[in-house]
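Q: My collaborator sent me two sequences in one message, no labels, and asked for predicted structures for both. Can we handle them in order? The first one she listed is below.
A: Yes, handling them in the order given. First sequence, followed by its structure tokens:
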Amino acid sequence: MMMLNMWFIVMLMFIFGNMIFISKHKHLLVVLLSLEFIVLSIFFLMIIFFNYIEYDMYMLMIFLLFSVCEGALGLSILVSMIRTHGNDYFQSFSLL
């Protein structure tokens, strides 16, 4: 029963993260935060799954390493965008 509750919470986290990612696309910071929320829910899902099959947690460290690199890359893009354009609106610059 407790395992089912944890799966339910992780799936709700994943769905809410995707809903925020789809609906709030005006600021880059909100998009990056929703992506990190999705990554965090996937991390929790992997913890539950690896504990269920009694697998060691080595792959979680690799996943955590890549998610930290993804977060640092997103923040560096945010800082460079704010320095060049003055804000983090998607409408303030052209993607072409």
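Q: And the one she listed second?
A: Here it is, processed independently of the first:
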Amino acid sequence: MERNANVCLIPQRYVISILIGFGIILTYSLRACTGTVMYHAIKRPKVVEDNRTNECNFTHDSAQLITVLDELLDWNQAAQFAIANSFYTTYLLTHVPAGIISDKFGGKYVLGFSILSASIIALLTPKSVQLSGGHYFVMILSRSCSGLALGMIFPSVNSLIANWAPARDRGKLSGFPFAGSQIGLALDQVVTNNLIIQSKTWSSPFYLYGSFGIVWFLMWHLVAASNPRFSRYITTQELDYFKREMEGHITFGNKAIPWFSLLTCCPLWTLIIAQIGHVIMWLIILRDFPIYMKETLRFDIRQSSLWISIPYLCTGFLTVTSGCISDFLINNQYVHVTTARKIFTTFGAMGPPIFALMGTFAGCHRFIALFMFTVGLTSMSFYWAGTRVNTLDLAPNFSGVIMGIANAFTVIPSVTLSGIVHKLTPNKTVEEWREVFNGLLVILGFSNIVFLIFGSGEEQDWNNPESDDDDEQ
């Protein structure tokens, strides 16, 4: 293959990592913006002044409702709940198929197709809703199609990282892609909200993120490759590095998946339990902590959108940093890879519920609660250098399938958890939220203990099948 290795000034493996990271930033911006959009787009009773008080004796700020020039949507609570859940009901359907295709034939086109499809759907959504007369079924259809498209993201990303990140570089090369989820959420908190306020139209975020998605796809298509052998821009020196580091660990091309060995692997199921615990924690902090700030501590949406973005940015930065630290510790033989994964997983699992719980003991002190939340969410960044990278340790040849299976199981709490938390906090008091965070601490404690006992960072024996062909699809 003809190579143009002088085009890029940095190693190609870092180029791929950065492009994947920006792709995930777009993914999470596309995923998260719908909730912010609905806050502004749905018709609500006009509030002139609201002097209600709660246990913290804060008045409810009447400036929370932002006027948009678009026609407001008359969607009740049931419609909003259906829209929120429609994404996850289809999201799980493409996880395992995407992992299989990526591991057998390459993840480049799977990831590209996923983000391109989601971007086109985003661009079509506002006009489709308007042409339907504002019927919520159109938004359900849009979110369902987005779920199908974005369900392919992490299995294909995992497969790509496995092909581009030798064992000694796994932490740092996966750091920026994994940090993309937090950075994307931070952008949504600030960019989406303020874009709607400034443009006076709820459709603007769909057009912005959809357009960026198209641009990203074009760059990805021109630059990326599923593995180093098929990159046009890799240097001979870097290619030799891959041959030295990855020989015997990665089999390029179509390969048979050892389903029985995979599905009966104890460390894999241990990993799935740890993933479920993490997702429960992630959803409570992502979806429910802003409710706590808004309904209990009465933090204004335009103020909290800026403040709540800070913890996500801190988490994104520390995710990259923790990946580099884990590589340093493992490569210099300060700790075994299994020990490193368990240490980072423990910090990432136990920090958030402990600090969230401490935040409730601050009572009505808003900024102390927000500080505790920031520290807790930032500590979650260690998880990515632990459990998340562990999906690459067990079987790099089948990391896409492993991620597909693990992520599919996490969809269950994604659908059910919001309703459970809502029932546990009918009055939105600090005491009720304390019980929620107590329960979160118990769940994370259990999943972490399971991982500490049964988890492994060792490559499994069934990782090395024979390759049927060497062609990249």
